[in-house]
Amino acid sequence: MTAVTVSLQPAAKKALWYTPARYMCPVHAPDQTALTSEYELKADALTCERGQRVLFQDLTLTIEPGQVWLIEGANGSGKTTLLRVLCGLRRPDEGDVLWNGARIESVRPEFNAAIAYLGHYSGLKEDLTAAENLRFSCALQGSDGDAAAALARTGLDIENDLPVSSFSAGQRRRLAMARLLLSPARVWLLDEPFTALDPAGRTLVRDLLGEFAARGGAAALATHHEIAVDGADIHRLEMDAPAP
Q1: Domain holding 101: CATH number?
Q2: I need a surface site. Which of 3, 17, 23, 79 has the fewest CB within 10 A?
Q3: Predicted local confidence at residue 145, as pLDDT
């Protein structure tokens, strides 16, 4: 396992307002086969600003098959903003995000199919059961997914007929991870995926990341947890809090 650390220094500049993302990208039918084709998600000289501050400046990184990037830093250092930029939900103030060498705006359908984003909000239907949520997600894409297998893998009961509105925060997080398992996306972008999870749930996320990387997937996650992921090429991105 290789560990690579990058350190960023913020600076002060003008503000740019943006709308926060409150959902997870759509899911597709499950595909647990190896992701054999090569791909590359690249942040090319990104600069992002908030208020009178620069969150990060001239940030360049490349996410490739088998890699897991741990984006670390204090609250307010720009971890969530970076993930939203990488998945195309927010434009950087400077620089570009590239998918296989092309700006993501020019290859949007291909890019959207290749990326799965899980933010702070899970985007679950409160009045549906866990299984119904997964089936609904697959139906939106006109495809079939094995909801039972995804629920079993994430420790949820397929026979549970209670609506998601009755779920604990940890159960909701597990269900959000089950949605990832029904996606053929090559890159997972996860914002604090360990939030609300018990020790067994945190182990589950680490295992899922390792299995995904071993199949040729890649991930970038904002986290405050020190983790080891078997089967993954670990990289670290250290982000400093903006100067006052």
Answers
A1: 3.40.50.300
A2: 17
A3: 78
